[in-house]
Inverse folding.
C-alpha cells in the first residue's frame, strides 16, 4: 500500500522555503478559511502549502425543450456538484476547463495555504519541476484506481473501495489503523460514488457492523490496518496485470 501522506516532509525544507518566500514576495500566496472557494483558473499551477483542497466538479445539462430546438438554444441547467477528491499539503493541482464541465476548488481545512504559479515559473527550480510532473503522474495512477473502484457493480463495494483509496493516500496512523484527518459528509461520499446520502448512511452502518470501517475521535473515518494491507495488495496486483 501507499504510505500515508506526511505534509511537513513531502519535499526538502529549503526548496519549499525558497518557493514560499518567492510566492509571498510576488503576491502568489493566500490563506483560505474552511469551505472558502479558491479562485483558481485554467492555465495556472497551484501548490497546496498547508491544509487540504477539495476538488468539486459539475456538468451543465440541457433542460427539456421542444424537439426541433437547436442544441445551441437549449436552456441549460446546473447539475449537482460531485466530489472529485482531495489535494493534500505538498501536492500540486490545476483546473481544467472543458464545456459543459466545470471544476472548482475549495479549502477543506481551516487556514489552507495555496501558492499559484505560471508553468514557466518552474524554470527557476528545475528539480522541483520534475517533482511536480512526478506528482501529476502519481495522481493519474491513483485516478485509474479510483475509476476501477467506481466500476464495481455493488454500491457497498464502491463505497469501501473509495474510502480505502482516500485513506491510503491521505490517512494518518492511529491505534485502530489509519484515519482520514478531515471530515467528509455522506452527501459528498454519495456524489463521488454515484449514490445518495441515504444509501451511504445505510451502507456505512453495514461496514461498521462488519468491522471494515470505524469511527475515530470526532467522527472521522478510520479503516483497520488489516483491511488497508489487503486492499493495497489487490491494487498492486491489478496494476501489474
Amino acid at each position: 500500500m501507499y504510505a500515508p501522506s506526511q505534509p511537513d516532509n513531502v519535499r526538502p525544507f529549503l526548496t519549499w522555503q525558497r518557493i514560499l518566500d518567492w510566492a509571498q514576495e510576488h503576491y502568489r500566496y493566500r490563506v483560505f478559511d474552511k469551505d472558502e472557494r479558491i479562485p483558481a483558473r485554467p492555465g495556472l499551477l497551484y501548490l497546496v502549502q498547508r491544509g487540504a483542497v477539495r476538488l468539486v466538479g459539475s456538468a451543465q445539462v440541457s433542460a427539456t425543450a421542444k424537439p426541433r430546438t437547436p442544441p445551441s438554444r437549449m436552456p441549460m441547467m446546473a447539475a449537482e456538484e460531485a466530489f472529485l477528491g482531495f489535494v493534500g499539503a505538498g501536492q500540486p493541482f490545476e483546473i481544467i476547463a472543458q464545456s459543459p464541465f466545470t471544476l472548482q476548488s475549495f479549502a477543506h481545512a481551516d487556514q489552507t495555504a495555496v501558492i499559484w504559479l505560471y508553468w514557466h515559473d518552474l524554470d527557476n527550480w528545475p528539480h522541483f519541476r520534475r517533482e511536480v510532473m512526478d506528482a501529476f503522474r502519481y495522481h493519474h495512477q491513483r485516478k485509474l484506481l479510483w475509476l476501477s473502484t467506481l466500476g464495481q457493480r455493488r454500491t457497498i463495494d464502491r463505497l469501501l473501495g473509495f474510502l480505502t483509496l482516500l485513506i491510503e493516500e491521505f490517512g494518518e496512523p492511529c491505534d485502530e489503523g489509519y484515519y482520514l484527518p478531515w471530515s467528509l459528509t455522506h452527501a459528498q461520499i454519495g456524489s463521488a460514488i454515484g449514490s445518495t446520502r441515504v444509501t451511504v448512511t445505510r451502507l456505512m452502518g453495514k461496514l461498521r457492523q462488519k468491522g471494515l470501517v470505524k469511527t475515530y475521535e470526532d467522527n472521522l473515518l478510520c479503516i483497520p490496518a488489516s483491511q488497508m494491507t489487503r486492499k493495497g495488495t489487490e491494487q498492486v496486483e491489478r496494476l501489474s496485470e
User: Anything to note?
Assistant: The chain has two domains: 1-150, 152-241. The longest strand covers residues 52-62. Residues 152-241 form a domain with the Arc Repressor Mutant, subunit A fold (CATH 1.10.10.10).
